[in-house]
Design goal:
alpha/beta; 6-stranded mixed beta sheet; 15 helices; about 25% strand; globular; FAD/NAD-bd_sf; Glycerol-3-phosphate dehydrogenase; EC 1.1.5.3; FAD-dep_OxRdtase; flavoprotein
């Protein structure tokens, strides 16, 4: 897709967006659906930085109540069921268990916080809070004997990179041009707006004209303002590193634990990819190279210790099968500790010289859709009255329209999975579930008229076939094995080293042909 777009010509758009993370792609979808001609460039892979390094949760942020961020929590709580409704394949309900530890937050405080959590965001389909007696419930198996009671509440899980890609796909369907692996290398402004120079991997350049520029570059947003646009950002960005580790499954039930720690942080343990447990996240200020973000030994040890504080069998660094890390570009509100810094977003509009640029600082994946609406609200007055009226009239459409593959009832995933298994009986049960989870109603288009496994082409392990790879390449901007194995999916966890090398060779051969 991207390569064909890099023609060296100059094109005119209504809106240009720098950055293909969840915010950039969410804005592109919303704007294109309101009739704007949109161009988005991303220098790497879609969601290749912060947006694919999340804890994979759509949650209100229970701990943010302690910092009195009620507006942010309410907005996030409202968004859980909205996103579940438009993407019921990649979003699913998840029950969280918060053990009570007498030495930390008192029981009444936890119960009061969860009462607010249940009622602040207009919860409808998600079940409310209940109490768990660990001695009589299988949920308590494996926990340390001193833990006797906990509170169980609801949030949601999301396939984060797929959320980014599906927003980009829907934006493209509505006319947006999404160009990946193409860096914006220069911007110029005049009284009529912006000219962007965009350079692809092959060195082919093109120029883009647009009256309005949105800077959704995440951790690099400040660099875009200062170095590309030559302006001075009013706000400051605080880079906070969040790292996660993956170990073999620690328990058999499907609950997520939320553990309190003595330093005031919380850590989740989440059932992950059927055979594993995800543990995260850390919160620490980051000052290193944004292109070289990795989980440090200190962070890995911290997460192992945090989990070991609650499980009877300690978790050791030797058990870590994978780890990942990202930097969250939070708005710097002057908080002392990284975990206390606001997760709210700030939109900074600079209209100097008649060339408006809106930069995004902060935010969280749960509220990306509301952020996109806020961006369109801010830039709508910059357009001529007829276009402005059109932008305003379609506000809120993204919360009602399904993302690709999500056009089935919010609570209809099990029925969809069963239908896929019946239509393609050669699929193993867990493979049918994975395909339904990743692609929803589009899974059948990938499988086509296949009646046996060989009809799907070459198999690379863990159920990955040529047919699925071709779908990711043709429709999801995937160009490397890393895109496929670690972002569009997490199948890299299930493949042997030789199978991964085989994938590298296969994708390398396809890129040479292209």
């Amino acid at each position: 897709m991207a390569e064909a777009a890099l023609t060296g010509r100059t094109d005119v758009y209504d809106l240009a967006i720098i950055g293909g993370g969840i915010n950039g792609c969410g804005i592109a979808r919303d704007a294109a659906g309101r009739g704007l001609k949109v161009f988005l460039c991303e220098r790497g892979d879609l969601g290749g930085a912060t947006s694919s390094a999340s804890t994979k949760l759509l949650h209100g942020g229970l701990r943010y109540l302690e910092h009195y961020e009620f507006r942010l929590v309410r907005e996030a709580l409202e968004e859980r069921e909205v996103l579940w409704g438009i993407a019921p394949h990649i979003v699913r309900p998840l029950r969280f268990v918060l053990p009570h530890v007498p030495q930390m937050r008192p029981r009444w405080m936890l119960r009061a916080g969860l009462f607010l959590y249940d009622h602040l965001g207009g919860r409808k389909a998600l079940p409310g809070t209940s109490t768990v007696d660990f001695a009589s419930s299988p949920i308590g198996e494996g926990l340390k004997p001193g833990l006797s009671v906990g509170f169980e509440y609801s949030d949601c899980w999301v396939e984060d990179n797929r959320l980014v890609v599906l927003n980009a796909r829907d934006a493209e369907r509505k006319g947006a041009q999404i160009v990946t692996r193409s860096a914006c290398t220069a911007v110029r402004s005049d009284a009529h707006g912006w000219t962007l120079t965009v350079e692809g991997e092959g060195g082919v350049r093109r120029e883009i004209r647009a009256p309005v520029l949105v800077n959704a570059a995440g951790p690099w947003a400040g660099d875009v303002v200062r170095h590309l646009a030559g302006r001075s950002p009013k706000g400051r960005t605080r880079m906070v590193q969040g790292s996660h580790i993956v170990v073999r499954k620690l328990y058999q039930h499907d609950r997520c634990f939320i553990f309190q720690n003595g330093d005031g942080r919380i850590v989740f343990t989440i059932p992950y990819e059927q055979d594993f447990t995800l543990i995260g996240t850390t919160d620490r200020d980051y000052t290193g190279d944004l292109a070289q973000v990795r989980a440090s030994e200190e962070e890995v040890s911290y997460l192992c210790r945090a989990a070991s504080g609650y499980f009877a069998r300690p978790v050791s660094e030797r058990e870590v099968v994978w780890h990942y890390s990202g930097v969250r570009p939070l708005y710097d509100d002057g908080a002392g500790a990284a975990q206390a810094a606001t997760r709210d977003y700030v939109l900074e509009l600079d209209a100097a010289g008649g060339a408006p640029m809106l930069s995004i600082f902060g935010g969280k994946i749960t509220t990306y859709r509301r952020l996109a609406e806020a961006v369109l609200d801010r830039i709508a007055p910059l357009y001529a009255p007829p276009q402005r009226a059109q932008i305003t009239a379609r506000r809120g459409w993204t919360g009602r329209a399904a993302l690709p593959g999500g056009d089935f009832p919010m609570q209809g995933f099990d029925a969809l999975r069963r239908e896929l298994s019946e239509d393609y009986p050669f699929l193993a049960p867990r493979e049918a579930e994975r395909l339904a989870r990743y692609y929803g109603t589009e899974a059948a288009a990938i499988l086509g008229k296949a009646s046996k496994p060989s009809d799907l082409g070459r198999h690379f392990g863990a159920g990955l076939t040529e047919a699925e790879i071709e779908h990711m390449r043709r429709n999801e901007w995937a160009t490397t094995s890393e895109d496929i194995l670690w972002r569009r999916s997490k199948l890299g966890l299930h493949l042997t080293r030789e199978q991964v090398r085989d994938m590298d060779r296969y994708m390398g051969g396809l890129s040479q042909v292209a």
